[in-house]
Predict the 3D structure of the following.
Amino acid sequence: MKIISDMHCHTVASAHAYSTLFENVRMAKKRGLWANAVTDHVGGIPGAPGPWYFENMSILPREIKGVKILAGMESNVVNSSGELDIPYLKGDPLNWVVASMHEVTFNGTHGFDDCTSAWLGVAKNPLVNVIGHSGTPGFEYDYEKVIPIFGENGKLVEINNSSHRVRGIESVNNCKKIASICKKHCVPVIVNSDSHICSHVGCFDSALDMLESIDFPEELVINSAVNRFKKYLESYTNYFEME
Ligand SMILES: [Zn+2]
Ligand SMILES: [Zn+2]
């Protein structure tokens, strides 16, 4: 299976990542990607940029070296109601939002019931495109209950390649369960690198191995064909409206 876009990538602006937007895009081009999203951290992640960084994203070119560029953000789920820390941004500069749970920005406990109710809240948030690395160990939730609701609300369940490398086998096993339930309920997934250095942009090996191991249908991987992904962008983002 070929992946045509990498829609979760960090730059030096995230403060714990090591490449610029242009270095990321150069790698995306080299690896034959059609689109690339810049999704730096926000809010309480140490060193994350403030609202001005995101507000100014309207200056980003729509395309660099023939690769479509989406202006995004990796927001944090901050509580069990599923609230996010997306700041008010003048001029609607973003066209791509990942929502993820991180230890440092989640207020209160993140037990099974907390995470279940949090994701149910996120599912209803019209700003969110991607449910980020929800297989993170320590943030398990009721996959059977929540995943069909992600699907009903047009949310893409992320299969995050970096989680497998950073979090190991526990993460792979959670992702396998999540992907199996997506397959069962026909809920689309998106494969992303979550790169923090340009050499990881467009690297999806572990995520694809896992999907292959459960015979995951290619047509449910939203970024496995340009036309399929374009259709999603047209329906769920303002990317083409902004052209
Ligand atoms: Zn994250
Ligand atoms: Zn990330």
